[in-house]
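dude i think i finally got it to work??
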Amino acid sequence: MCSNGNWKRIRHRLKGSGTCFPGCVVMAIGRESLENVFKINNPKWRTSITKVEPNNIVTRGYSQENLIGNISFSEMVYLLIKGEIPEKKESEMLSAVLVSFCDHGVTPPSTQAARLMASAGSKVHACIAGGLLAFGKNHAGAIEKSMRAFQEFIQNSKPETDIRVMAEEFVNNYLEKGNKVPGFGHRYHSEDPRATRLIQLAQEYDCIGDHTRLAMAVQDVMVEKKGIKLNIDGANSGILSDMGFNWRTGTGIFMIGRLPGLISHVYEEKVREPDFRKFFDIEEIYYDGAENRSADEINMATLNSIPKVVD
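look at this
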């Protein structure tokens, strides 16, 4: 049924159309039919991603029924985020990126959080959510920072500038302020093997552009200045940027890749380890707080702070 505002607009359009609608005809058609004729409604939400109708689901213009069995998962991810089905090499590159994010053992805080929750008996979805929510600026946040840094630097640089000069300026912008360069160095690896492999594949799939070239040039400068190489975030930041992904999608793409790893850790904790297992012996916990304090001292101090009443 039309709202009063819509009904007024319909009458206005009828009047301005030059078409004569006898009152009896208008009454016979009714407000709902006129609303459909003139497509006047009040949408509460809009999206260009997926349209849902009875017995029909369309994503980015493609029927999901047609997509199922015809495109890979990485192609679907690309389609959802970018709106187009990627070419073969782009699809293979994105698959490699997602695989590279899959797992890093029990070393990350996110995996530890998920397993601790599983040990406590939390539901699987809660454990996974706990792991995902553990992502922050110190863990999983580097890829977004690195993508943004590369994209904004390339955007603001002159095309004719030498790549080595650009890399030195990029690095100095961080080091002169005492900041770490995002996407470089790793607390466990002197050379992240995933980053090396990703760069090889990017060259093989012809997915290297200005952002990845900058990342590789920055690595040369960082090795000279700090002895530090690209990590997985730095490599993927350049590659994803060259594939046209906006930096705001970086952490989300990382989460897509890491999710299966979190699921596997939660499952392993639940089926392989004892419930509510002890992660530390009490002797392994070092207490360095205050000792030998007494609540009597608090009571005495409270009594002494009460003003005395003089008769």
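Strands lie at 50-53, 56-59, 62-63.
im so relieved honestly
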